[in-house]
């Protein structure tokens, strides 16, 4: 009489979790939100432009780049005429937001 010890250990091989989804690459324009400086030239001074609700148009006082600014949303590059900006007033983003 033979007792058959069946000792099969069922090993389940799980495939390692792979990160799904693609990481969103950080936009260089996020510098405007994160560091409050122009992504193009690093200037911290801007001309105030037209506002629309919670969003704001700002023009870099250093290089003239214009941005749609509505934190925490990623800023967008815009192009509208200089005459809609207060070119004589150089403000930091913080000053613009609190004015
Ligand atoms: Zn600039």
3D architecture notes:
The chain has 99 residues and is of the alpha+beta class. The protein has helices spanning 31-34, 93-98, and strands at 46-52, 55-60, 66-69, 76-78. The protein has one domain. A 4-stranded antiparallel sheet has the order 1-2-3-4, with no helix packed on it. A hairpin with a 2-residue loop joins strand 1 (46-52) and strand 2. The longest helix has 6 residues, at 93-98. The mean pLDDT is 87. Bound molecules: zinc ion. Zinc ion (ZN) is lined by residues 38, 40-41, 43, 60, 62-63, 65.
Give the topology.
Elements: H1 31-34, E1 46-52, E2 55-60, E3 66-69, E4 76-78, H2 93-98
Antiparallel strand pairs: 1-2, 2-3, 3-4
**Average pLDDT value?**
87
The termini sit apart by: 94 Å
Determine Rg (CA atoms, Å).
27 Å
Bound molecules: zinc ion
DSSP strand content: 15-25%
Written as H for each helix and E for each strand, in order along the chain, the element string is: HEEEEH
Helix/strand-derived category reads alpha+beta
- What summary fits the major beta sheet? 4 strands, antiparallel
How would you sum up the global shape? rod-shaped
- Low-confidence stretches are none
Strand order of the largest sheet: 1-2-3-4
Kindly state the number of beta strands: 4
| Residues in helix, % | 10-25%
Our count of domains comes out at 1
Determine the number of helices (DSSP H or I, runs of at least 4 residues): 2
């Amino acid at each position: 009489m033979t007792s058959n010890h069946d000792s099969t250990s069922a090993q389940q091989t799980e495939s390692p979790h792979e990160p799904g989804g693609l990481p969103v690459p950080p936009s260089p324009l996020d510098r405007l939100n994160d560091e409050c400086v122009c992504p193009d030239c690093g200037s911290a001074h801007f001309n105030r432009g037209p506002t629309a609700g919670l969003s704001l148009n700002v023009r870099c006082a250093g290089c003239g780049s214009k941005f749609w600014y509505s934190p925490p949303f990623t800023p967008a590059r815009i192009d509208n005429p200089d005459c809609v900006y207060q070119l004589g007033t150089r403000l930091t983003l913080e000053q613009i937001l609190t004015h």
